[in-house]
């Protein structure tokens, strides 16, 4: 046996065996870590508790190892504000609170702010079972539930579309979005609502700080100033500008490149011509994510993340009815811009693998809805993916 390992406890063995017989699952919900009473030890598998538990929290993902189908890989994140001890033991608990598995862990000191350092610590535990499908994750609506491969896969899909879009610009000299039903997507300057059948993506050169127009712009960093990190190399950027001319504070810009792995940036205007610094959304420090239930007529998954006054809502949805259900979900009241309407795009794949792009908005009452396509015309096999980023209003002095 290796120096560090994880064992099923007697009750864990019994529950997994029963799950295989009854074709049910063991729902792992929590992970706990401890310091082993200040000493390392070798678990026997007969334990019912950790020797000295220091923290217990929710599991973020349960998956099957790609190389070994009998290995169940369990991941969790020990938050940055938890620490001041050396991690030596780890335990997995099911929905009934029973210790399913226990393992030892290489001595790892978890610092806190008082130590002059703070960090999130990813904990990965592997347990071996005869049938990995007998172990699953019981979702806690207060934690991240999207696995890293899932997120990476969806990001790769979006970046693939951006790369193809940039390639079209280079080969045809034409700028534009994917068009559902031959219509072009744009933003109404008077309302800020995204809609169809208007102008193409526009080219831009000059100073982004002086840009005072709604729309999506394609620009080269060699002839554009004000880009993130004072970018000057020869690259294509897509910049989205949302301006409310009735409000000197009501202007936002997002910027992204078409390269795989590139970051997405966002900033806000605080009064012409003053802008906040660009915020890199690829490495945000988020508050605890919030999972949002789908509205009637939809199934799927949506997650809201808050970083300062920046809100990001991402997820996927599928219609369960061909009636006129346009509202996908409702944004919780504390995360709404009650005086504004926010436009967004959702893309997906229909049952015949054709790509489709829809437009929607978030109303002041929190209604997160599709607006540019009759839901009655959508296939029930259509999967939609969306990412929306906006800022909450700040108090002004």
Describe this structure in a few short sentences.
The protein is mainly β and 397 residues long. The protein contains two helices and 26 strands.
- Tally of discrete structural domains: 3
- Beta-strand portion reads 35-45%
Q: Total number of β-strand segments?
A: 26
Main sheet makeup: 8 strands, antiparallel
Overall form? globular
What's the alpha carbon Rg, rounded to whole Å?
24 Å
Structure characterization notes:
- The structure is a single chain.
- The chain is 10% helix and 43% strand.
- With 397 residues, it is mainly beta.
- It folds into 3 domains: 6-137, no CATH class; 154-280, no CATH class; 290-391, Immunoglobulin-like (Sandwich).
- The strands form 5 sheets. Strands 19-20-21-26-23-24-25-22 form an 8-stranded antiparallel sheet, with no helix packed on it.
- Residues 137-147 and 169-199 have low confidence and may be disordered.
Features:
397 residues, 43% strand, globular, 3 domains, 10% helix, eight-stranded antiparallel sheet, mainly beta, Immunoglobulin-like, 2 helices, seven-stranded mixed sheet
Secondary structure elements and pairings:
Layout: E1 6-8, H1 10-22, E2 26-34, E3 53-58, E4 61-64, E5 71-78, E6 85-94, E7 99-110, E8 121-128, E9 135-137, H2 148-172, E10 185-187, E11 194-196, E12 202-207, E13 215-225, E14 236-243, E15 251-257, E16 264-271, E17 274-275, E18 279-280, E19 290-292, E20 298-307, E21 310-319, E22 327-330, E23 342-349, E24 355-362, E25 367-370, E26 383-391
Parallel strand pairs: 2-9, 12-13
Antiparallel strand pairs: 1-7, 2-3, 2-6, 4-5, 5-8, 6-7, 10-11, 13-14, 14-15, 15-16, 16-17, 16-18, 19-20, 20-21, 21-26, 22-25, 23-24, 23-26, 24-25
């Amino acid at each position: 046996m290796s120096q560090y390992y994880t064992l099923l406890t007697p009750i864990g063995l019994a529950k997994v065996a029963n799950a295989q017989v009854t074709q049910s699952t063991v729902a792992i919900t929590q992970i706990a870590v401890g310091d082993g009473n200040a000493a390392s030890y070798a678990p026997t598998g007969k334990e019912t508790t950790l020797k000295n538990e220091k923290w217990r929290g929710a599991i973020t993902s349960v998956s099957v190892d790609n190389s070994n189908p009998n290995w169940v890989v369990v991941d969790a994140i020990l938050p940055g504000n938890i620490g001041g001890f050396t991690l030596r033991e780890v335990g997995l608990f099911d929905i009934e609170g029973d210790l399913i598995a226990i393992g030892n862990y290489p001595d790892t000191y978890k610092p806190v702010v008082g130590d002059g350092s703070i960090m999130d610590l990813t904990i990965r535990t592997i347990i071996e079972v005869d049938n990995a499908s007998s172990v699953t994750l019981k979702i806690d609506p207060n934690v991240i539930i999207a696995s890293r491969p899932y997120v990476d896969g969806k990001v790769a899909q979006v970046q693939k579309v951006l790369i193809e879009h940039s390639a079209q610009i280079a080969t045809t000299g034409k700028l534009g979005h994917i068009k559902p039903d031959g219509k072009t997507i744009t933003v109404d300057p008077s309302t800020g609502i995204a809609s169809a059948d208007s102008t193409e993506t526009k080219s831009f050169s000059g100073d982004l700080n002086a840009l005072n127009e709604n729309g999506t712009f394609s620009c080269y960093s060699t002839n554009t100033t004000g880009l993130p990190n004072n970018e000057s190399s020869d690259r294509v950027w897509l910049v989205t500008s949302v301006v409310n001319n009735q409000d000197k504070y009501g202007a936002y810009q997002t910027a992204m490149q078409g390269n795989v792995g590139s970051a997405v940036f966002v900033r806000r205007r605080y009064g012409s011509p003053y802008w906040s610094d660009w915020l890199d959304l690829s490495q945000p420090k988020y508050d605890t994510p919030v999972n949002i239930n789908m509205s009637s007529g939809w199934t799927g998954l949506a997650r809201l993340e808050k970083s300062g006054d920046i809100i990001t809502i991402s997820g996927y949805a599928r219609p369960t009815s061909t009636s006129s259900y346009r509202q996908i979900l409702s944004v919780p009241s504390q995360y709404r811009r009650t005086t504004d309407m926010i436009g967004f795009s959702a893309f997906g794949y229909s049952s015949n693998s054709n790509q489709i792009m829809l437009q929607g908005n978030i109303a002041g009452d929190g209604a997160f809805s599709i607006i540019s396509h009759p839901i009655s015309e959508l296939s029930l096999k259509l999967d939609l993916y969306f990412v929306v980023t906006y800022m909450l209003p700040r108090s002004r002095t």
